Structure formats: C-alpha cells, structure tokens
Amino acid sequence: MSDFSNHSPQPSPKPSDSFPSVSPLVMVETAFLASTASLIWFINYYFPLGPLLRVFFPLPIALLYLRWDRRAAIMGAVTSGLLLTVLMGPTRSILYVIPYGWMAVVLGGLWKRGAKWPVTVAIASLIGAIGFFFRYWLLSILLGRDLWVYATTQIAQLLESIFIRLGILAPPSLLFIQIVAVLMVLANNIVYLFLVHLVSLLMLDRLKSPIPRPPRWVQILLDYEE
C-alpha cells in the first residue's frame, strides 16, 4: 500500500492567480477617457469647428497609455468605438477607430517609450494616411461611386492651371497626378500630427503625463522651457 501521508495536497490556485485583477481606478479612467474621445468626435461631426477639435481626437486614448498601459489604451479605443456605434452607427464608429483610435494607441506607446518627435510624427502620419485612404474606400463602397477618381480629377485641374501659369503645355500624366495626391495626403497628415504634438505637449504636461520634449528649434520657436 502506498503511503499517501507523504504527499500533502497542493492548494488550488486562487482566481486572482490566473486572472490578474484590474484596478477600479483604471476602469473608471478608461471609461471616462473613452467617453471623452467619443464625445469630441460626436460634437465635431455634427458641429464641425475646423481643426479646433480634430487635434484632440487621439489625446484621451493616448493619455490612457501614458497613465497606465497598452491594455487600458486598447480597451479605451474599443470602448469608444462601441459607444460611437450606439450613438452614430457602425460606419462613423469605424471612421473614428481607423485611424484615430489606432493612432492614439500607437502615439501613447511611442511617447511612453520616449520616442523622438520626428519618429512619432512620421509613424502617426503614415497611420493617418492609411486612414484617409480607408475612408475613401469605405465611402466609395457605401455611395456606389469611386471618390478617389473625383479627388484626382480636382487635383488634375489644379495641376493643369499651375502648368499653364508656368508655360508648360503638356498635361500632367496620371502617374504624376497620383503621386502628387499621395504627397498632399502625407503632407496634410504631417501638419496635423505636428499640431497634435504641440497641443499634447502643452496639455499633458499639466496633467502630469508629459510626452518627450520637442526638438530644440521647436522649443526656441515657442519659447518653451523644459
């Protein structure tokens, strides 16, 4: 007969050992900042104020990453998407999540790791450009017409007028028009992300969640003291 007295029973794992608990403060801040992000998008959609509110689109979710971690930021972006789905429908919700929810999570991660401004602006601008083309693709499907063709037509007319002023009689080629269109999208996103960084620098410092310091020329231009 085997001796069972030498084998003490192993204690069963507690639920907290297998499933890490989430702090109530994290849950509250995630819900609050996700609601804030959704509200900013909601107000800007129905009462557009130009670029005034657009620069705040990624800030609440990026702040979640800076204050907590990637999980909180992802949950905040998902919660914002779900809330906007209820308020505005799935199409407008997707247009927030891609690119702004995605951009906010990436920005928060890069800022928390101390990435330099040129790196964060470049990566976030690429995400913004992807979101721009995704928006055109999705709206083209919903409307049943190719909106990109309309956009390139407008750019072609602009380039033709510039060519005429420069004394160039040859019309711009389709490839040249497409390249100019893509460069314009990238340039627009670079300017937008630079403004986002400036607003984040001023706001998040006051919220005790600072982002990496700007390049020296920006500090001189803004007379900003570290």
Automatic annotation (TrEMBL):
The organism's place on the tree of life at top rank: Bacteria
Spans traversing the lipid bilayer: 49-66, 117-138, 147-168, 174-204
Key words of the record: Membrane, Transmembrane, Transmembrane helix
Region Disordered, residue ranges: 1-20
Name this polypeptide is given: DUF2232 domain-containing protein
Phylogenetic lineage: Bacteria, Bacillati, Cyanobacteriota, Cyanophyceae, Oscillatoriophycideae
